[in-house]
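Supplementary Note 3. Input sequence used for the single-chain structure prediction.
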Amino acid sequence: MNDRKKDVVIKLPDPRPESGFSIEKALRLRRSVRVFSPDPIELSDVSQLLWAAQGITAPGGERTSPSAGATYPLEMYVAAGRVNRLAAGLYRYRAPENDIVRAFEGDIFQDLSTAAVGQGSVYMAAAVFVVTAVHERTTLVYGRRGIRYVDNEVGHAAENLFLQAVALGLGSVAVGAFDDEAVSKVLRLPAAHRPMYLLPVGKPG
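The predicted structure, written as discrete structure tokens, is reproduced below.
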């Protein structure tokens, strides 16, 4: 993998705040999709999905999903494989700027799938969204109870992403079966960023 080109920032297309797709329809149609087609998804899809999970929705910095005490412990990454206008690699989402910062280039899907006990959905996805948590942001305020609050927040963000995927005509699935240390190594995560969820996304196969 080429990791010499760091700190490359990609401005994301503006997410749309409204659509004609109802939340009731998204709830009714949401299903786990584990088989994806080889077709790519769009950069605008990546933007919309990241916004749904952790996007800014108000001038005060409020987000699409609730956070205990507005401590915002989650960090979102996207492993891009088949995304139009985006090189394969790992990117970190910055919600206030609505952009992504490239961590490194390269196809990591085989290694990431291996770290997720060989699950095919991870390998076949056009992109894998990775929810990580910096627990200290919340536990410094709430003590050990903050661990539960972080876990709750992971679920809020993931479900937002799943419902948004339905509205975009995409499939998604929740992957919790993985080796934490192996995933951290494949993604070269900072020590404080603990992987909590892998969310493979693509066009249904």
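Residues 24-29+58-77+155-173 form one domain. Residues 145-167 form the longest helix (23 residues).
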